[in-house]
Amino acid sequence: MADKRKSAITWWGWAAWVVVCAVSAALYPQLLASVATDFDVFGKPNGYMSRFGATIVMPLIMLALIGCWHVLADRSEARTVHDVLANYLPRVSPNWLVGIRTPWTLASDEAWRRTHRAAGALGVVAGLLCVVCAWVVPLHFAILGTLVIIFTWAAAATVLSYVYFRRG
Questions:
Q1: In terms of pTM, does the model score above 0.85?
Q2: Same structural domain for residues 82 and 154?
Q3: Residues 61 and 1 occupy one common structural domain
Q4: Which residue numbers delimit the DUF1648 domain (predicted)?
Q5: Closest CA to 100 of 118, 83, 81, 79
Q6: Which domain, by its residues, includes 94?
Q7: Is 125 in the same domain as 165?
């Protein structure tokens, strides 16, 4: 069953990668020489890349993820990697690059700390649910189920960041 899942996910991964590469290539001539790639809490650009960098970053990230899938798909280390990342989340200091970066967590160190602590714990639970979903539910529903779990976790983390900010 793992081989069938791996080949199906690999097929979708490569198809998505080809689409992203094609869209990047098609949009490249239309982009400005400098493209905004990062924004502050007010929505104003504060980070820029060359158009080449902006169109190559996403395909490279996707390629790295596809590579990770090939390495970890048939191993129990995939679960371990997720747990390490989820457990590391509460230890991330406030910054503009890594973590749950909502206007509320960026405005308050206490909201940042509490949000990341809760999101780390919820991330471990979400990871366990994703693993169960991937192995128990049929493939087509497992992909949807995993996406629902991940988006629910992200929405919960966002709502929690607002709640913790309002509580002060």
A1: no
A2: yes
A3: yes
A4: 18-63
A5: 118
A6: 76-168
A7: yes
